[in-house]
Request: fold
Amino acid sequence: MLEIRGLSFSYANFSVEDVNLTVGEGELVTLLGPNGSGKTTILKAIYGLLKPTERCVYIDGKDFHGLSFRERAKLVGYVPQSHSPPFPYRVIDVVVTGVASQLSPWESPGKEHYERALEKLRLLGLEHLKDRPYTQLSGGQMQLVLIARALVQEPTVLLLDEPTAHLDFRNQALVLGIVRRLAREENISALITLHDPNLASLYSDRIALVKDGRIKAVGKPEEVLGEETLAEVYGIPVRVLEFEGMKLILPEKEVPE
Reply:
């Protein structure tokens, strides 16, 4: 289980304050909010790319930031919003780089690491792309390869920053559906960031609404995705419609400037 206790971090002109959140095994939790609300900052601070003011991240009761880099790499897989490799590496070579942090400085990935990488590609339905240059993939395929790279670490926690950014309608559904399935089948605690409330409603077990670096509400989609709450978070009038047991969230036609 991932537990965040009072996470705070400050830039010169922006701060994240007193973030408290848990993500259970097999659960997909979404940090949802507009651009610039602090979602990515929270995720980076959890992972340790940014240093919180105090120790505040625990995995299965362990002080995550107090562990060595190698120990942390075994626990958490991180998928950034985008990735641009300088060379057209093969897909399987990109995936196997996920074990680099678990190797000694002079050690190269071995046969067992490539077998593990192939297993993760197979899990995501990408085995047929293993020898394809990474730079020739579609946006959705690239995102899934990055997820495979994180999974090859065999983490207990998966952090994904805007996994649907720059993806088309089909690939948004494909990527989020796979992440949700992985969380449940592999007992992974998955924490992702999104700015689209409709996608969050469809795929999240729970949602944490983020505004101005603070979590405004946490709960199941049907509990937190109300018109007044969303209007406050996004700063525009919002309509929430019910359709066949699902929520459809739309901005009002006339949005004030």
